[in-house]
Amino acid sequence: TPDLYGASIFLNENTDKINIFSTVSFKSEEKIKRATIDQTYFDDSNNTDGFFKQIRKDENKRNSFLFNIGSDFYINNDNTLTTSFLVNTNNKNFISKLDFNDFDPSNSLLRSSLRNVEDIDDISRIEAFLNYTSKFKKEGHQLSFDFKFDNTISENEADITEDIVFPASETIYQKVTKEQSFDNFLFQLDYALPLNESNKIELGYKSTFRAYKNDFSVNQFNTTLLDFITVDGFKDVIKYNENINAFYGQYGASLGGFSYSFGLRSEISDITIANDSSNNDIQKNYSDIFPSASFGYEFEDGTYVSVNYSRSIDRPQVSQLNPFISLNNNRFQSVGNPDLNPFYTNYFELLFDKSFDKVNIVSALFLNYAKDQFLTVIENIGHNNDGLEIFRRMPINSGDKKIIGADLDLTYRPTKGLILRAYVSPYKLDITNTLNNLYDYNSWVWYAEASALVSLNNGLRFKTNYYHKSPINY
Question: Which one, out of 86, 299, 376, 388, has a CA that is 20 to 30 A from the CA of 396?
């Protein structure tokens, strides 16, 4: 049961010419996680070659503070300038305790060690945002411009102590340092033009620029030199730069109860991944087209049905690309893959929407299909100095993912001050064509939400939420 405490203050002052808003919040949380790994080794003849057991406990504490201030300037009835500035700080203290035990084929203990990790991270983020919106005389005819910049700096240090208790007593000390910086720029221009009461064109341009840098090193205490020495292969500077330019447009129209829309987005991507230890920079340049379409009909009683299609892209997160993430567990190392490519999803949906006096029903049948998804694989990368096998978790592009299912969203308002909501979505998850078919599986998954919101006459509100997701059987 995780601890979570927080407080927030929201301030707002609105006049005819300006609206000023601000938020101050603080949050403190602690999560405890336990994990067990039981592993059996086999030789080339499929005979048992040994056993390994790991017991791990993580106590993750995090405190965060956020301050935001912004304003809307009403230049006139048709022009508005919005600005905001945000500061967010986080400090994390993650403590991990790992118990390693290796056994021979007869289950006799070969080696036992205890690994304690104190991982401290100070993260600071600033964000500046500007929006200018100009409305024309015709209703719905407008032009808007957005600019956003945010910068995140992380200073991370981990102290690792591993006590070998069997067969001989020995203590290993390591220090891991990471200095990371992440810059994001966004430029966006949107234009909406109603041709008449039932036809509308929307056009836009969006550019995003991301720059990431990670300077890391791992040092181990040398008992002869009485000093920390850099571990070979664990010191480098990783740089990731991503520039994406997108052009998009959409046309929508309606005729009586029938409505439809067609959209098209074109993206041009330019990505560079480099590190100081080699001159082998990874360059990726590609262009993509993303169509979308929707056909809907609204009946006289308010019932609405629609058929929708869209194509989307999932790009790797920086953590999935970073070749060094953590050494907290030296037997099962987690790393990123600089050569990871995005994958694309085709989404089909049949939607039904019906409102009654106190009940609203939204339901859908859907199908997702994606090729070469992100798949985390486990590889044997050899042995350490003690002759023990080391494994690495790394994301790759492998496997086709198909999700087919349905969802039902019910909202019930029995009284003015009470809102009850229930959401349920059963779906079948089917993964095929993975690496050597080792990670293929299919499983039915049940996801559900329920909530109750009580609003009192004095403005006080209470809300309770429940979430459920069934296990996935691999």
Answer: 388
Q: Is the peptide bond before 167 cis (omega within 30 degrees of 0)?
A: yes
What number of other Cβ atoms are within 10 A of residue 316's Cβ? 22
Q: Is 45 helix (H, G, I), strand (E, B) or coil?
A: coil
Q: How confident is the model at residue 386 (pLDDT cuts 50, 70, 90)?
A: confident
Put simply, whether the predicted model's pTM sits higher than 0.85 gets the answer no
Query: Tokens in use for 359?
Result: 């009940």
* Residue 180 to residues 152, 160, 319, 466, 473, Cα–Cα distance (Å): 8, 20, 11, 36, 37
CB 370 within 8 A of CB 342: no
Within 10 A of 374 (CB to CB), how many other CB atoms are there? 20
Cα distance between residue 393 and residue 432, in whole Å:
20
Q: Does the pLDDT of residue 459 top 90, yes or no?
A: no
Q: Are 43 and 35 in contact (CB under 8 A)?
A: no
Other Cβ atoms closer than 10 A to 74: 15
Matching residue, tokens 């999935």: 320
Structure tokens at 395: 């994301």
Hey, what are 74's tokens? 């009403």
Tokens of 384: 């350490």
Contact 65, 25 (CB under 8 A): yes
Structure confidence at residue 435 (pLDDT): 92
Take residue 445 and report the two structure tokens written for it: 């998954």
Q: Confidence band (pLDDT; 50, 70, 90) for 304?
A: very high
Distance CA 101, CA 173 (A): 19
> In the Cβ-directed half-sphere of 274, how many Cα atoms lie within 13 Å?
10
Query: Using an 8 Å Cβ cutoff, are 1 and 29 in contact?
Result: no
DSSP class of 326? B
Query: 375, 384 in Cβ contact below 8 A?
Result: no
DSSP state of 328: S
**The 3-state secondary structure of 80-148, one letter per residue:** EEEEEEEEEEEEEEEEEEEEEEEECCCCCEEEEEEEEEEEEEEEEEEEEEEEEEEECCCCCCEEEEEEE
CA–CA gap between residue 412 and residue 361 (Å, rounded):
9
